[in-house]
Each structure stands twice: as structure tokens, then as C-alpha cells.
Amino acid sequence: MIKLRELEKVTLRNGVLIQGLPGIGLVGKLAVDYIIRELNLRKVAELISDGLLLQQNVAVLVDEEGILKLPTYDFYHYSTGNRDFLFLTAPTQPVTWMQYEIAERVLDYFQMIDGREVVGVCGTTMGNGEDVYFATASREISEELSKYGFKPSPGGLITGACGLLPTLASLRGLKAYVLMGYTAQVEPDPLAAKRVVLALAKLFRFEINTSNLDRLIEEIKAREAEIAAMLKEAEKSRKEMPPFYV
User: Fold this and answer.
1) Structural contact between residues 72 and 46, judged by C-beta atoms closer than 8 angstroms
2) What is the model's pTM?
3) Could you tell me if 90 and 20 are in contact, meaning their C-beta atoms sit under 8 angstroms apart?
């Protein structure tokens, strides 16, 4: 079951869809959610499906006021210059056997409102921490992205919706590619997400303040340093304990 509900009718000008869903380091989701919050974007559509499970089970979300909400794909609209954007986020990825069907439904909606370009953003464990990497089905797009200083992916796999949606979009003749921020952790990585946010801002020429993201990065660094100091002190105390004889 897949239902797409339009909350507001929109028609895109030279439209771009930018998808950021949960994945390694939550890089793509952190990046897209941050842009949505900072630009105060309005939600214009949502996709409901029995393929959107939470913690591998049928579940609903409950907010701070006790309000029930289904897990949904949420589409947010942004207009700037001569272009319109749809930012797509969700609390979960579809189950594996629904990935293709849901991706095709997203593309149906996107093309119905005159969408032209599809970008998947996510994390990658290939490469190094300073670069943003890309993958695309077109050599021409590869050359274009390289001019922005992005690096071609050194290989491997892109699992889940991040790679699937752009690949299916390319089969429909749409301009499509993936942008990836390097991460070496499974925990949320706001630093990698910041690199993706800045890459999108550079590519599409929109302005966004990253100061709130910078504060989050510093808070995480401080917590990590505190934990490292505690572990070091615990190890020192262990070594200073007198031997125990039975």
C-alpha cells in the first residue's frame, strides 16, 4: 500500500529533488533536516506506506503532546531564483522489498509537478574526511560535478534509497546523481553532514547559515573528549590498584 497525499499544490521551475534518509552516520538525513529547519520550509506532500517500518516493526510515532503520527516520506518546498526544490526526508527507509515501488512512486509525483533533477545525499566509508564524493550514471554529469571540486566515488556499493532513487531517475531520462560525505562512524556525524550541506549550497547557489550545525559539532567533540578523559583516568586508576592475591 502506497498513498501520496498532496498538502499543497506546487509546480516546480527547473525542479530539483534532494533526498536525505537515515543511513550510515545519518549524514544525508542530518543534512536535509538541517536545511529544512534553517530555511523554515513548508511541507507540501507526504507519502504513506506499509513499507515504512520503525525498528523493523509496524509502529507509529508519538510526539511530545501525545499525538499519533504515521511514519511518512515528507516533501518540503523551497523556491529561490529561477529554481524550485523539493527536500525529501523520513524517519526510516523502506523495507527492502518495497524500495523499488516506493522510489518509483516518488518519481511519479516528482515528474507530475515538472521535476527535472534528482539528488541523493548520504554518507560513505570510502575516501577521506575532507572531500565530498559523487556517483552518477552519466559521464557528462561526472565532468560537471568534478568542476565543483567533488571527487568521483572510489567504488563499492550504495545501499538503500540513496543510490536507488537517482539510478531509477536516470532511467527515466532525468539528471540524477548521489553526493556523499565521508564518515567513519555509525553514530550521527554532523561534520560529514555539514560538508554535504555546503556542497549543496555551492552547487545550487543558495545561502545557509551553518552556525547551529557548528555548535552541534563542538558539543559532540566536547562529549567525546570528556568520555576519553574518563576512560583514561579509569585505566590509570586500574593500573595503580595493588595486586589482588587469592
Assistant:
1) yes
2) 0.87
3) no
